[in-house]
Each structure stands twice: as structure tokens, then as C-alpha cells.
What we know:
- By secondary structure, this protein is mainly beta.
- It folds into two domains: about 5-90, SH3 type barrels (Roll); about 95-215, no CATH class.
- It contains two helices and 15 strands.
- It has helices at about 5-15, 80-90; strands at about 20-25, 30-45, 45-55, 60-65, 70-75, 95-100, 105-115, 135-140, 145, 150-155, 160-165, 170-175, 185-190, 205, 210-215.
- The protein has a ten-stranded antiparallel sheet. Strands 4-3-2-1-5 form a five-stranded antiparallel sheet, with helices on one face.
- Strand 1 and strand 2 (about 30-45) form a beta hairpin.
- It is elongated, with a radius of gyration of 19 Å.
- It starts with a helix and ends with a strand.
Amino acid sequence: MGRCQRVLLLLSIAVPLRADTVYQINAQGRQVVLQRDAIVIQEDSSFLVYKHFELKERRVEKVRLNKGSLPYVVTPGSPAQQKQIVDKWKRFGYTATVTDFSGKTTQVYDAYIDFYPPGGRGSLLESVPPRTSIALILDGGGADELDFSKIAQVEFQGEHLKITSRDGQGESGRFLMPTERPAEARFLGITDQYKPASQDVFDFSLPLGKVKAITFQ
């Protein structure tokens, strides 16, 4: 049984947590469940936006549904249920301790990397998706990409990285950006102060250029 299958099994046998549940009314007038254990963060006559945990990527993502001829229905959960959902997200996402160059350390849950215009907050390009892996141009030539699940620690010296994998092997090289456009890579995630009603799927954001080390649990 693979890791994702084991996580799915754990999620299915866990005590059900019902935060917001999103339904769509089909052509026969029946409610079809689109997403359970979600947190709806915005809704109007045109669209519905909610957050949920994406198992494949092991991170929280935001989904926008355009309202068409078939309506959506939301069964809201309580603030306490929403907090329970965020706590569950934190258990199943990637957890890391981030140290910046000032020496400050922060524990980050549901960690991932995303790419922004230099100094900006908006997403760079839809064609440059967030990721839970680190790609390198290796010092000895060639390239490699390591998933967070295989990494024990990353040490940063500007664009140069030294990665120690969980099996004790080491690699070093230059961080490989997924685009040729000017961009800033940031390490993102949720901290213990994250508010379930937040419009964002993170409350921690640090450019990789300001990171000294990341240690994954």
C-alpha cells in the first residue's frame, strides 16, 4: 500500500469532521457532494471560493467555482469544526522548521513553494504551479528534483543549496527556477496562529533568498 493510499485510509477511518460541505444540484434536482471538510471563504451570486486539503500534493489549495445553471449549496460548519479541519490539514501536510538569516525559527505546516513577481504578492503565472519539491542544477552537472518527503534538511547560501536526504545522501547545486521570467520563490505554509477564516491558504511566507535552513520532520 502506497503512502497516499495509507493516508486515504486514515482519513476514511478517522472520526468524521464536518466543516463546510459543498454540494451541487444536478439536473435531476439532487444534491451531489463536491467537497467535504472544506472551508468556504467567499460566495456571491457569481462564484464560490473554498479551501481544502489536496492529498496528492499534501497541501491546502483554494478552489473557485463559477456559478452556472446548476446551483451550489453549502452546509456551513461551526468555527470549532473549522479549527478541527485546519488541525487535520496540519497533521497530513509537510511540516518543517524554517530558520532565517537573523536566526529566527518558525514551525510551518502544510509547507510548499510558490513563485511570485519580485517583491509582489500575486501569483506569478497559472502555468507555474506551486510545488512540494526542490529542483537543482547540480554542481557536478545535470539536474535533479527532490520531493519534500525525501528531504531531511536544506541549507541555503543565496541561490546555492545543500540538500541532505532522509537516507543520509547529500546533493548540492543552484536552485532551478521553473520560469525564465523574473520571479521570486517563496516558502509558504501554516503556523499555529493561522486563522481558519483566512482568505489565504498560508500565513507564513518567506523568500528563499532569506532562508538559512529548512529542516523537515
